C-alpha cells in the first residue's frame, strides 16, 4: 500500500545536490537535474575537451597542494571522478573537481574519469558554489563571496541560503559582513595574514583609516584575536567611560604605539623609562637613574660623555 504521509524535509548537508536544486529558484524552464547517483556510469574524457568552470568560486589554488595532489594521482590515479556537463560533441565544462582537473594536467594525464550531468547556467552556478562550500577548504573571503553570489545571482534569501549550506543565519551574516571591509584588509584575510576572528573585530570600527591602522598593527605585531578585540573595544568605548586625563584620551592606536616605544627605550637604556604624549604630539621622556655611576652609564649610551 502506498504511503501518502508527507515526507519531512531533510537538512541541506544530508541532501544530494540534485535535491538541493529541485527547490531552488528557476528562470524559465531549466532542465531537471537527477539526484547524484554513485553507481552511474563513469566516462573517460580527454582533458583537452574540458573547459574550466566559469562559475568557480575559488580564486586561489595552493601551488604546493596541487603538486602534492598531482604526485598522488601519478601513483593512485583519480579516486573520485570529476563532474562535467556536456556543451556539444567533444566539448565539456567542469561542474566540480577543478583541483583534480588541474592536478591531472600536472601529472601528465590525457584522460580523466568523469560523471556527465545536465545543467543550465544557473544550476551550474549553484552547484559549483554549494559543492565548493561543503567540500573544499575555501578561505573565509571566498566563502563570503560565494554566499553573496548565491543571494544575488541565484535569487536566494538568507534563510534559503542557510538551508542550502547547512549554516544558521547568524553565521551567514558574519561571512557576508566581511565584504564590507576595505580591500587591503580583505586581501590580508584572503592571504591568511589575519584570521576571520581578527576580521570580525575590525568590522566593528566605523572609520576606515582607523581600521587600516589597527589592521597594520595586527599584522606587524602578530596580535592575537583577543588583543585586537580589546583594542577595538577601547576605541569604541564612549567618552563617559574614559578617565578625564590627557593620557586616557589618546587614540588607542597611538597609545599602543607609545607603549611599544616605551618598552624599546626601557630595554635600550636598562631603566624604567616614562614616555608621555598628548593628542598634539607633545610630551616628555623621563629616564631615571639610581646613582652617579648609573647616570654616567646612561650618558655614555647617549654618547654625551
Automatic annotation (TrEMBL):
InterPro entries in UniProt: Chromosome_partition/occlusion, HTH_ParB/Spo0J, ParB/RepB/Spo0J, ParB/Sulfiredoxin_sf, ParB_dimer_C, ParB_N
Compositionally biased region (Basic residues): 1-12
Keyword terms of this UniProt record: Chromosome partition, DNA-binding
GO biological process terms on file: chromosome segregation; positive regulation of sporulation resulting in formation of a cellular spore
UniProt xrefs under SMART domains: ParB
Region span, Disordered: 1-37
Alphabetized GO MF terms: DNA binding
Superkingdom as given in the UniProt entry: Bacteria
GO cellular component entries: chromosome
ParB-like N-terminal domain residues: 43-133
Family, as annotated: Belongs to the ParB family.
PANTHER family tied to this protein: CHROMOSOME-PARTITIONING PROTEIN PARB-RELATED (PTHR33375)
Record-given protein name: ParB/RepB/Spo0J family partition protein
Organism: Litoribacter ruber
